[in-house]
Design goal:
With about 250 residues, the chain is of the alpha+beta class. The protein has a single domain, classed as SET domain (Beta-clip-like, Beta Complex). About 30% of the residues lie in helices and about 25% in strands. It contains seven helices and 14 strands. The strands form five sheets. It has a five-stranded mixed beta sheet, with helices on both faces.
Amino acid sequence: MDLLLMDLVQKIQKTSEAMSFETVSDLLYTQYKVMLLTQERTITQCINGKDIIIDQIKVNSLLQPPPFASLSKVRIGKSRIHGRGVFANVDIKETEIVTFYPADMVMYNTKPFGDDVENVSLCFLSERCKLHLESKTECQLVEECLDYRVNVDKHYSIQAHPSFAQDANFLGHFINDGCIGNMDNMSATEYSQQQPTTTNCFFAPTKGGLGVTVLATKYIPKDSELFTSYGFPYWMSLRTKKAIGHEKWQVRI
């Protein structure tokens, strides 16, 4: 299994700029299965007197950058609609992987996202978060990551920290929502209707929720800004000043 993984990594490194979503997804899942052979899969955390089972290998897989990431298709620049944005360095074809969404923090929700029940979230910080932001407390890091979240399945999500903007492999967290300039009074129906014309990429979790790629949904010319959709619930949560899908969280290092 180790030899298979190494062979897949070597093949993709040779053609990293053109790697497909399916190949990336298979590689990450193969890496996960290799780790299952040598590591304990689950750990148990006691939260409010209840034992919560966490997929430790999944958390570790999400926190570790993909070994094959070698992209230079996008860069950070001044957005025409909001703050900083992501721009294409080259012409990008439909369905191409543009960049990845970084996992500076992994969050596990004890209840599925979207459930209207009391929920506790466990937060796991990446090494780069802990090493490069030493002046901040764990709680500060969590708070700063909460607005940069992508769900990978019903219980797990990844968060990015806005301080990291140098690596073209991981710039998904700076892609703006194409509707952001009109959100103040927009309804859910209007938001849904505008999405097809205001977006050119989307966040695509890989098989097993082991990573998140950014895939182009249409041809993106060089120097164009990338736009995605955060989803209407994200904007509703900001309006009501509430965090998305959780009210309490605890940090695990």
